Amino acid sequence: MSNFQHRVLEEENGLRIDKVLSTLNEEWSRTQVQQWIKESHVLVNSSAVKTNYKCSTGDEIELVIPEPEDLDVEAEEMNLDIYYEDGDVLVVNKPSGMVVHPAPGHTSGTLVNGLMAHCKDLSGINGVMRPGIVHRIDKDTSGLLMVAKNDMAHESLVQQLVDKTVTRKYRAIVHGVIPHDYGTIDAPIGRDKKDRQSMTVTEENAKNAVTHFRVLERFENFSFVECQLETGRTHQIRVHMKYIGFPLAGDPKYGPRKTLDIDGQALHAGVLGFIHPRTKEYLEFEAPLPQEFEDLLDKLRHKR
C-alpha cells in the first residue's frame, strides 16, 4: 500500500472529493477514486466520507492506495527491443505509443505486461503494477529504460537516480529557432493549480528540476536539440522547453495546436548510462531515432 496526502486549495473549495482526487493524478479515473472512497481508503480530516462530499479549503485528504491483486496484471508476449540483459538488469527500447506500466482500468498492452512474459524475475519493490520499473518515460516518448530484475538492483539504480549519476540524454524537435548553442534550465516543477493533470514551473509544492540542452540543428521554424536530465521530474523536458518559449513539436499537453504531423511529442530517450549494481562497471547504451522522427527531420531539412 502507498499513502497520498493533499491539503485542499482555495480554488478546490466546494468541489466534490472524487473530482478533486481524480484531477491530482492522471492515472486515477473518477470511477477508481469513487471505489476507493466507498471502500474507506479515503479520509478527510481523519474521517471517512461519501463520494459526494464537498471539500473545504484546508481539508486534509489522506488516500491509502491498496495494492492490486496479482491477477490484475497478466504477462503478454511482445516483441520487445532488448538492448542488454543479465541476471540483475535489463535495458529496453520502448516504442512511442506504449504505456510503461498498468494503471487501474488499464492493465494490458503495457511494457510491464511484455516484461512479465519475457522474464519471470522482476524486482517487487514497486508492487504488482510496476514490477522492475525504476524510472519511466511518457507514453508517446520513445527510448531506453532500465529495468531491475531483483530488489538489490532496484535499490542501487534508484540511488543512482537520486545521486544524479545516471546519464539520460534525449533528442527533441522544438518550436522556434533557439539562438544560442547551449543552455541550462534550472526551474522548479510542480503540479499546475489551474490544471491538476499538468505540471508547470512554480515555487508552490515544487521540486527542483535541472535540464541541460544543446542545439544540434536549426530549421526555418524549429530546432533539433539534445536535452540531458540532471533531475527526473514528471514531464520535465516538456515543461522546461515550454517555459523558455520553445515547446516540443507534437506535444498535445504543453505545445501549440498547430504543429508537425506526429502522434505525440517529438521526444526520444536516446542515451542511457548507469553503473551496474553488481559489477560496478559503467554501462552506456544508445538507441537510434525512430523512423517517424527521422522522417520529420528529413522534411524539415528539405524545407530549409
UniProtKB/TrEMBL annotation:
Stretches assigned to coiled coil: none
Residue span(s) of domain RNA-binding S4: 15-72
Oxidoreductase listed as a keyword: no
CDD domains assigned to the protein according to its UniProt record, in alphabetical order: PseudoU_synth_RluA_like, S4
Top EC class for this record: isomerase
Known EC number: 5.4.99.-
GO MF annotation list: RNA binding; rRNA pseudouridine synthase activity
PROSITE patterns: PSI_RLU, S4
Species the sequence originates in: Peribacillus saganii
PANTHER family xref list: MITOCHONDRIAL RNA PSEUDOURIDINE SYNTHASE, RIBOSOMAL LARGE SUBUNIT PSEUDOURIDINE SYNTHASE D
Superkingdom per UniProt: Bacteria
Record's keyword terms, sorted: Isomerase, RNA-binding
Keyword RNA-binding among UniProt keywords: yes
Protein name as it appears in the record: Pseudouridine synthase
